[in-house]
Design brief:
5 strands, disordered N terminus, single chain
Length: about 200
């Protein structure tokens, strides 16, 4: 599946990540599954932390059950499309004073994860733009997601549809808890993966 994302997007950093994962797999082939997972997770975290970005927000995105039912949104590809549309709208809002052709992309590292209780959802880390406060940016992230994916959402679920808070501890490790299974066991892939379509390295 990672090779598919390489064909679809093909930025240099994705190619490098794939090469690094392959190299790491060869170096750790004699280790146990848990040891390989541990080393792979640290390798990805080190890679993300090497970006010239001041990560300060941990985020999580859920989708209302009503919207899933209406659009038959039960797979990861559907959630990826929702996130892509969301980030496009978010850029328009955050950088509205900048001409379209000159608008930057918001730095972000996104993973998708499946659980039986909530279905497919997303975790991510983001960096507050220099012209906003963290509180302002968090409010915009939430407002835009509820506007995009909160249609028909029950009031008691709205608070859980999106949350953002200052990064504490090793949140990137947490976001990768299911995604790294991809590199250990092909049967585990559908529990989570790194969403390279919606990840952006500045």
């Amino acid at each position: 599946m990672i090779e598919q994302y390489q064909r679809d997007t093909d930025p240099a950093f994705i190619k490098q990540l794939i090469e690094d994962i392959g190299l790491n797999a060869r170096r750790t082939s004699g280790l146990s599954r848990s040891q390989r997972r541990h080393k792979s997770k640290h390798a990805v975290v080190d890679w993300v932390n090497s970006w010239d970005t001041e990560w300060d927000l941990a985020c999580c995105w859920h989708v209302s059950e009503r919207l899933r039912d209406i659009q038959c949104g039960n797979d990861a590809a559907w959630l990826q499309r929702q996130l892509s549309a969301y980030f496009n709208k978010l850029h328009q809002h955050v950088f509205s004073r900048i001409p379209y052709s000159q608008r930057p992309q918001l730095p972000r590292f996104i993973t998708l994860e499946y659980s039986h209780s909530v279905g497919w959802h997303a975790h991510g880390i983001m960096a507050t733009p220099s012209h906003m406060t963290r509180e302002q940016f968090s409010a915009v992230l939430r407002k835009q997601w509820l506007k995009h994916a909160g249609w028909g959402c029950a009031e008691d679920f709205k608070e859980r549809m999106f949350w953002a808070e200052p990064i504490k501890g090793a949140y990137t490790h947490y976001a990768l808890k299911s995604a790294i299974n991809l590199h250990d066991d092909a049967q585990q892939y559908f529990r989570g993966f790194i969403d390279l379509n919606n990840t952006h390295r500045p």
